[in-house]
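Most newcomers find our protein records easier to grasp once they have seen one. There is nothing in a record beyond a sequence line and a structure line. Getting from the letters to the tokens is the skill we practise here. An example says more than a description, so a record of this kind follows:
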Amino acid sequence: MAYSIREIAAALGAEAAGDLDLVVTGAAEPALAGPDQIALAMRPDYAEGLGRGRAVAALVAPGTDWAALGLRAAIFAPRSRLAMAGLSAMMDPGPRIAPGVHPSAAVDPSAVLGEGAAVGPFVSIGPGCAIGPRARIASHASIAEGTTIGADALILQGARIGARVRIGDRFTAQPGAVIGGDGFSFVTPEPSGVEQIRETLGRRTDMTPQRWSRIHSLGSVRIGDDVEVGANSCIDRGTIRDTEIGSGTKIDNLVQIGHNVRIGRDGLICGQAGVAGSARIGDRVVLGGKVGVNDNIFVGDDVIAAGGAQVFTNAPAGRVLLGNPAVRFETQMEIQRAVRRLPRLAAAVAALQKAVRNPGHGD
């Protein structure tokens, strides 16, 4: 695809200058850009690379003297990452999935496909499914019985969607995502060691052989509009009620969402985060990479948990958390400063101990 600078600026809602009819076919970093690519030079250190490349058009920061940089056209981007979002969406062709249903796909006769749906090779769609218009389903994906998916879905290679899952419009499942597997819920005939230490905060009364019995997952998963689930991430079905993911929430790769979890709107769940069963996550919550959230707790609206935080207790709305166990960000910074002082403190204590053991030494 080819785009004029005028078309790109209009799509981004940005101002532009120079030859607005100049046409580009792609985007590149400044030092690597060719004459048919728009260079991404929104920061001064990136703009310095324009002299090493061959771009004649660029995305630049407002106020940049684009002509002095040897450009024929420029688009001004006050928020560089927002401009990147718009530009990348415009230029991404998406996966190539032929219209219609591939001959190797197994689509149950009772399933309903919306107008313009594209179903790739070796896809399986079970009985009673309803797939919305313009859905694109790539090879080897499977959708189990009774599942409904809204309009404009993109389900990529090898994604697995379980039975009776309900998904809204504009859903994206990256390769290998698994939605609607059984929850990890087991019980023993007598109170298990885990139950004992929860009740006693660490003490165990006995250790006897025990066998685990599965608590089957009778619920499913309910997902709102504009949700994305990353590669190899898993969202477990609920035990009785559905696990819920609110509209606009984005889930990164390798994330585990346990059974009965409820996540609000517009959340951001980063790679390798894990949310244990029955936790409730509010709206606009950000969980950084490798964040863990304990079961049966509540994380309030607008909480940000920095990478690696382990959230064991309820978190009030708006709190910024860091550490293991997670505490207020500023408290964790004080803890870290204190930890760095420990070697000097230990040396001072050792000197005092030596002085006490040897009173008058050196007089």
User: Anything to note?
Assistant: The helical segments are 5-12, 44-47, 80-91, 193-200, 329-357. Residues 3-91 form a domain with the Udp-n-acetylmuramoylalanyl-d-glutamate--2,6- Diaminopimelate Ligase; Chain: A, domain 1 fold (CATH 3.40.1390.10).
